[in-house]
Amino acid sequence: MNKSIKYSVTAVILGLSLAGCSNKIISMNDNHQVNDLRDLDHDGVIEAREHCSNTILGSSVDNDGCGSKSEFIVRQDLHINFINDSATIAPQYQGQIAQLADFMKKYPVSKVTIEGHSSKVGGYDYNMTLSQRRANNVASDLESHFGIAANRIKAVGYGYTHLLDNGTTELAHQKNRRIVAAVSGLDQKIDYKWTIYTKN
């Protein structure tokens, strides 16, 4: 009998304990979300980590939400010849300068070096000055007629220090009286994500 009373009392105590636990009120503090968890440009990176907010949709991105880009070198050469002792650009070369300007507008980070050269007729100092005038005229044409910013153009006169033809004939001199313009810069191509629907 005593055993059954003990078991009954124990069962009652356990029951009351469990009942007390189930009715206990737990108070929780309101937590304010500090980080912005939205993804406004839909690139899979939350705004809290986003460094490039205008990512092109579908492009491959890094952990900062910046699109992956491949860089490659672009180049175009220009050749202009001059008559003896002249820095005047002949009209037939305006088309080449226009093409160069169009190329530079297509690649807005590109820069050009205009190289002026002379034949080996006359003194060194005179030809250095003459070749610089030739380079300056082409650079000025790019800036004033075609709107290319001056900080993208460099003009250098080399005189007869870089001869194309070491001969002394008039044909050799004609080849050496020239402008060479080399424009180069970095172009960027967006890398896109591959999916099962990607065709290429």
UniProtKB/TrEMBL annotation:
GO cellular component: a single term: cell outer membrane
Keywords: Cell outer membrane, Membrane
One term of GO molecular function: calcium ion binding
CDD domains registered for this protein in UniProt: OmpA_C-like
Localization per Swiss-Prot or TrEMBL: Cell outer membrane
All copies of domain OmpA-like, residue ranges: 69-187
Keyword S-adenosyl-L-methionine annotated: no
Domain of life assignment: Bacteria
Name assigned to this protein: OmpA-like domain-containing protein
